[in-house]
Amino acid sequence: MKTKILESYGAIYKQMKDKKVDAGFFGSFNFTLTHYKLGIVPLARPVWLNGKSTYAGYIFTREDSGISADIKDWRGKTLALVHPYTTAGYFFPRWYLFERGIDNLDAYFKDVIFTGSHDTAVLAVFNQEAEIGAAKNHIFNKMIKDNPEMKKALRILAESKTVPSNGLAVRKDIPESIQDKLKRELLNMDKDPAGKIVLKKFGALKFIETTNQDYDPVREMIAPLNIDLNTFEPAKARHKYLGEINAN
Q1: Residue 39: DSSP 8-state
Q2: How many other CB atoms are there within 10 angstroms of residue 115's CB atom?
Q3: Which residues in the chain belong to E strands, given as ranges?
Q4: Which domains does the chain have, with CATH numbers?
Q5: Which regions of the chain are under pLDDT 50?
Q6: What is the pTM of this model?
Q7: What pLDDT digit, counting tens, does each position of 228-237 carry?
Q8: What pLDDT, in 10s, does the model give residues 147-169?
Q9: Is the Cβ–Cβ distance between 39 and 194 less than 8 Å?
């Protein structure tokens, strides 16, 4: 077995489509999109050291921003998202606003920026580079736990349903016997001394089985947005990356 680190979702998708990669770890939206296009099969996902194998999305602001949970307060503000291929950092806030009558982020906010990572989205709000942000709950929670000043400064406005953490999926043409063997190896790692060493390095307690149905909460967010997954390309419009904002 060989492993490789690929730089983006697009690279993973292309290499799986071209059958240059047999399996990969996918975030919840990336799995949903790739499953729709290629029919990849989910096998297992890790249970992290905090005992969780799922995460939720947070929308948050500063305590001193004067912004409430009423989205009327959000109009004309700067919104920090993570990346247009993330559930917590993009699709959850899009869905949340859509359910409340807002379908055009560019028209509703003064600016929408992509930070490139969840921790940077949290920092963007904390450092007042954006007034509202979105990120994974466990990253937000760890950051405020490690930084008492940040804990006092930030406030959660909304929280999503939980979705699966990054899980391992394989191409659908991989023989079922190999799929089953790989799944068994993952699910039994915590019972094997050598497996426990690997899990410790990975930062996980164990692996649990993951099914296609586990991703239904992601599909529920996407469905009302009328997104065609066959042709999905994130809207660019005025959206910028944080580095571009800082350079101006």
Answers
A1: -
A2: 26
A3: 23-26, 41-48, 54-55, 57-62, 78-81, 111-114, 132-136, 154-159, 163-164, 167-170, 204-209, 240-241
A4: 9-52+165-210 (3.40.190.10), 57-160+234-247 (3.40.190.10)
A5: 236-238, 244-248
A6: 0.86
A7: 888 876 554 3
A8: 999 999 999 999 999 999 999 99
A9: no
